[in-house]
Design brief:
About 35% of the residues lie in helices and about 20% in strands. With about 325 residues, it is α/β, with parallel strands linked by helices. The strands form 2 sheets. It has an 11-stranded mixed β-sheet, sandwiched between helices. It has a 4-stranded parallel β-sheet with strand order 12-15-13-14. Bound molecules: threonylcarbamoyladenylate and magnesium ion (MG). Magnesium ion (MG) binds next to loops.
Length: about 325
């Protein structure tokens, strides 16, 4: 058993493991991460191995002090300081030109690096006590949904990590928003996440280019199929699309069940229709329904503004696998 409540003793132990080149899962405000010494290619390679993650998918480097940002990057656009000043610590990752302190394996050979300062005392303490920046993807097997509780990590990767720090459920519940900031100060959204793009636009005083407007290799990890539970997911707009007598179907509803569903095969994301609350519950709803061994999970569409954009992005990626498999059967 390598799961420990995240008290000061365990944080010290986790920091020692990371300093020695090991890998530790730790809580952040978004999802649980799987961290290693960002300066050590060998340590970082263990993360890819544990997750079965392809090496072309770069990692985010987590820091606890603003000074660490300057060590990891070069030619920081002014806009980067403005936005990190406003949103750090918090669920914003900036992708900016990297310095030579960042090994290739972290950035998948790209000339840029993703950096974020998480808003979670355990994550910040761990980085401080270890005294180094921590490279960390979400602590799930590649392509699977992200963990928002220590038990999710334990179930999916328990035997593959040196230690899991249990800091309770993640409050934000979806991954950070990732933006690329170019040298001319323009901003591109690379992944919708915990900070609504509207808030970034307001703070930056300019429009943010959305993913369908961005082309090229800027976001190599932004695969269409991702965040999938093992159970196929199908997005629905209305109750006409579901058969409530089908006891092998599970449901994720936004504010209330579209029909009376017997048993506990459904989840409601936010009775008040609050998108922040809905985002914080989305992955754990998926995890629970996925553990029931159902044939299909029907997920109701949510409004696509604020954090709804991040929810719909995850929902579409989960459903893309189902669509692909359905198409394969047609052939
Ligand atoms: O909230 C989060 O961001 C969580 C917690 C643990 O911090 N981390 C996370 O990491 O979601 P991960 O590895 O699951 O997703 C990071 C994404 C990947 O899709 C990757 O392609 C993208 O960030 N990324 C990282 N560095 C990049 C870069 N230099 N250029 C473009 N995309 C980058
Ligand atoms: Mg991930």
């Amino acid at each position: 058993m390598n799961l420990y409540p995240a008290d000061m003793n365990s944080i010290q132990k986790a920091a020692d493991i990371i300093r020695a080149g090991g890998i530790v899962s730790f809580p952040t405000e978004t999802v649980y991460g799987l961290g290693a010494d960002a300066r050590s290619p060998e340590a970082v390679a263990r993360i890819f191995e544990a997750k079965n993650r392809p090496f072309f998918d770069p990692l985010i480097v987590h820091i606890a002090e603003q000074d660490q940002l300057f060590t990891l990057t070069r030619d920081l656009p002014h806009q980067a300081l403005k936005l990190t000043g406003r949103f750090w610590p918090g669920p914003l990752t900036i992708v900016v030109p990297r310095s030579s302190a960042v090994p290739d394996i972290v950035t998948a050979g790209l000339d840029t690096v993703g950096v974020r300062m998480p808003d979670h005392t355990v994550a910040l303490e761990l980085i401080r006590v270890a005294g180094l920046p921590i490279a960390a993807p979400s602590a799930n097997p590649f392509g699977y949904i992200s963990p928002t509780r220590a038990s999710h990590v334990q179930r999916q990767l328990g035997s593959r990590v040196d230690m899991i720090l249990d800091g309770g459920p993640c409050t934000v519940g979806v991954e950070s928003t990732i933006i690329g900031i170019r040298s001319d100060g323009s901003i591109a959204l690379l992944r919708a996440g915990g900070i609504p793009v509207e808030e970034i636009e307001e703070s930056a005083g300019m429009r943010v280019a959305l993913p369908d407007e961005v082309s090229g290799p800027e976001a190599p990890g932004q695969l269409k199929v991702h965040y999938s539970p093992s159970t196929p997911v199908k997005i629905i707009d209305s109750s006409r699309e579901i058969d409530i007598d089908d006891s092998s179907a599970g449901f994720i509803f936004f504010t209330r069940p579209l029909q009376d569903i017997p048993g506990d095969r459904y989840e409601v994301l936010s009775e008040e229709g609050n998108l922040r609350e809905a985002a914080s519950r989305f992955f754990s709803a998926m995890h629970r329904l996925d553990s029931l061994g159902l044939r299909v999970i029907y997920a109701e569409r949510v409004p696509e503004h604020g954090l709804g954009r991040a929810i719909m992005d995850r929902m579409r990626k989960a459903a893309a696998r189902y669509d692909r498999e359905a198409n394969d059967e047609d052939r």
